[in-house]
Amino acid sequence: MSDAYSKFAGLSIALADHVLTLTMDNPPVNAMTAETHFSLATIWDQVGNDPDVRCVVITGAGDRAFSAGGSLQGMIDHWGDHGRWQIGMAEARALILGMLSCPKPIISRINGHAMGLGASIALSADITIAVDEAKIGDPHVGVGLTAGDGGALLWPNLVGLVEARRYLLSGDPLTGKEAAAKGLITGSVPREALDTEVKRWTDNFLSKSPVAIQTTKQALNLDLVEKAKKYLGEMLRLETKSWESPHHLESVRALLEKRQPVFGND
């Protein structure tokens, strides 16, 4: 593999037989780190221009989680750090747009729970295969935040506005099997069949003309990419507004303290 991929910290990266595998590796639940977030925001141009890469698989280490999204304690530790937050918002926009715009087909190997930003990363792929019992959800509202870093963009386009409202306003997760039945993901399989199903897809892509696959992906994503360019900035501004509210801090503290949150009128 090219040494050029060694600069992307926070990811385990392997390239074999034209398949690039990106693994979020932060046990036990692959919570997002600053290094992983930056790498996922900046890697896609290189992937798109690498002639040795014809397909990408993104997954999480282990069996427990694809990615649990942000760390609750980290949310408290960094609350009020506007500079850090704004960098994170810019990277979130680049991450989602990068995956949607990358011409190479991306497969999400959803090996375990995919929550919050983890769900947005999973759903930004072209083919999404989950373990039957894995949970996928966007519980931003549960931590006092707007589902702005991908959720409000992706879910309505995948399952329609009514279902998106149902799950984003409640924060309730679905199992992989439920998500597949609703069309949120491509499919779900028993855990022991996950790698076989992912390989079925990589083999399918590798058997086709790379130009045909890549241009078809670009054609399919034209509308979604335009929506991302048009609306993600405002979605992230709304998430910033919610982040600045003391309701966010109270929501996270209540979760950590295992109690009901108490919200004022501010």
Short description:
The protein has helices at residues 34-42, 44-49, 72-77, 82-101, 117-123, 151-159, 161-170, 176-182, 194-206, 210-220, 222-244, 246-257; strands at residues 11-16, 19-24, 55-60, 65-67, 106-110, 113-115, 127-131, 135-137, 174-175, 187-189.
Walk me through the structure.
About 50% of the residues lie in helices and about 15% in strands. The chain is α/β, with parallel strands linked by helices and about 270 residues long. The chain has a six-stranded mixed β-sheet, sandwiched between helices. The protein has a four-stranded mixed β-sheet with strand order 4-6-8-9. A hairpin with a 2-residue loop joins strand 1 and strand 2. It is globular, with a radius of gyration of 18 Å.
What are its keywords?
four-stranded mixed β-sheet, 266 residues, alpha/beta, six-stranded mixed β-sheet
Task: Determine the mean pLDDT.
Answer: 96
Task: Give the total of beta strands.
Answer: 10
SS-based class: alpha/beta
Largest sheet geometry:
6 strands, mixed
